[in-house]
Write a structure and sequence with these properties.
Among the domains are: 190 residues, P-loop containing nucleotide triphosphate hydrolases (Rossmann fold, 3-Layer(aba) Sandwich), CATH 3.40.50.300; 204 residues, no CATH class. 30% of the residues lie in helices and 11% in strands. The protein has 22 helices and 22 strands. Helix 3 crosses helix 4. The termini are far apart.
Length: 788
Amino acid sequence: MGDEQQVPQTPAVPQTCADRLSTSNEEQIEKMKKDGVLTEEQVASCLSNLGHSATGLQHVYQFLSIPGRHLSNISILSNYVYLQKLEIPHNNIKDLSCVSHMPYLIILDASHNEISDFFGFQPPKNLKEVNLSHNRMVLMKDLSAYCSLSKLKLDYNSFSQIRGLGRCTGLTHLSLAHNKLSHISGLNNLPLKELCLRGNQITKIENMETLRSLHVVDLSFNKIQSLSGLQDLILLGSVNLERNLISDIKEASHLHSLYLLRELNLLKNPVQDQPDCRLALIFLLQHLSGLDQQKVTAEEKVSSVNRYDPPLEVVAARDHMTHMVYQLMQPQVLYDSTLPSLDSPYPMLVLTGPQACGKRELAHKLCLDFTDFFSYGACHTTRDPYFGEENGSDYHFVTEEVFQNMIHMGQFIQTMQYGGHWYGLSREAVEAVAREGLACCVHMELEGVFSLKNSYFEPRYVLLIPTDQERYCLRLRRRALYTQPQVEAALGRVHLYARVSREHPGFFDDVIRCDDPAEAYTSLKQVVRQYLGLHQAGGDHKQSSSSTPDTSTELSREEVPAKERSRPPSSPAEAGLPSSPGPAPEPSEAGVCRTYLSKVQAQLTPLKTPAELSSLQRRQQLVREALKGRSPEAYTQLFKRSAQTAPSLLTSQSQDPARSPSRIPPQNQPEDSSDESRASSALSIPSSTGASSKTAGPAGGSELGSEPHVEPLDTTSLEHTLETLQDQVETSHTPDAPRPASGLLSPAVTPSSGRPGSNARPVLPPIPPGRKSPSPSPTTLPDLGPRP
């Protein structure tokens, strides 16, 4: 055996004390980490925001954030006295006593831990924001010592009662979502701006009326059935009530007075199952900008108003369209009495005003005093008659079914709903008055006035309005027909009438106070006399006209051309003679009947510029030449339909040289003849013929009977020329020639040619023989005309 080679062995180096200490520290640190103990190395790596200490003598780190480290012991933080913000969420911490050594702490976030002791530390005097959500706390303690606390978040704990916050005078944000609260309490007089009680077991909104500064409320995922309790929170801007038990849309009325409310969430409530829920909520809360997490558009707001409480204009437009459609569905009938013409509409007088203002009584009395001019038109209604009312005299009382059938048959001119009942003015009611040759006097509410203004009728509207509230209330109560809510509603209607009159100047032709019935009727009678051109005393007509200048007469002389003022009376009616059998009128009465038109025409006739008058004269001349066959062929073609009646009329007129169209009427006729020559209707619009009968142009042109050079007429004016001359041809007279007595047509006579509504047919039938009033021609009946 040989010698074995031996490997030398390295001698072992002895381990120093420092090495042993380092190894033990590392092992200890690892063990501490495993046990959830916070170490200095972890703290050092998580510190931030270097700044001055509270004393200003040294630099310190102010923020510490250690989330999700599975920490359970953070006692080492007792040495970090200068911390201002501490964030330790998502750990296993149970003890926060170290916070007692942080007097400068402002923000504390210890959410998602295992803390069971509510505020288990001495209060830092500057602590403002605390988040202790997702912990295991059950009972709230008194927080009076935390006077600087402004934001407290305690979500996902097990609190069953709110307490201990009474002296937190700086608390503005409080969140107790997903706890076990069954009622709201302990929040009296807190300056809260945001309150979140989401996901509890609350059944009623209560004890919140003192939270006057509240802006945002989250009560979602509870069991609330009513919104009552929020109506006093005037600064409220957002309400979240998702997944509750609200089932009635009317509950939104509790929020109607919250004018700053902009966001409302009612998703997944039973109320969402109702039809048009969104539009109804938008209508009740017009100031919303967001509903159910969706933006509220302007179109939705307009649609909601038009659906549930449309303006009077919209209601009237719908009412008018409804009646027009139903009328077109029925066999068409032309009503001779009320059919509108170019000269003047059918005369009507409408008295309107709030409930129980006396308009019905005044209408009856007016028709009794002016029997020669007016007759009462009874409306239809579905309400029961009051004591003393007669069917057919005051109203036509019908059932709801009959009223609806009349609507579907197109029998109404206008309808409206008031006080849960239907009211409507039928066409037959107006026709019955018109067939007697009288103007119709009716009364209606404001909604009916808006509807009637959409029709072709152009009445005079007189507003009767009470100005003494106490007197008006006493009148309502004396009738013993209205409850207290109805009385209050009637008072509100007075303000509605006043607002419409104030915001729509000219909407009513006259406004009369009706506090005293006698004074109201005196004023109404005076207004009607002015409409009709009557004087207060018929026998003093000449005296009053000579002593006091009449403004309307002066206006009429300025506006009516000189030829029209000076031409002689062209018909028995204009001359004051009766046109039908019957006793002759008294001279004073006949004079009154002949003069009231000129005054009203002076008020209604708009002033024309010299250029307009010249153009109108030129077109009149050209069309008259066309009717005589002396103008271009285009004008002859326009009036080819009426040409068959023109030659005979012109021939008959030319037989009398004094009445020849080419002859100039004497210039020295008395000016009073203008009152007689224009008495075609009581309050009608002056015809285009009378307004255009001046013969001399602005440059001193020739008379109407001459033959001037024919200027080509632009085709754009042909339609206007046709409308101007048709009434002249169809009324069987030329513009300059006076109207013969044979031109008076009886209702049974139908002209050989013409169109419905033209002057070939009378605007109103003649007054039947035997009346006490003068027997005028068909065109000398009262016409209230359009508003000035």
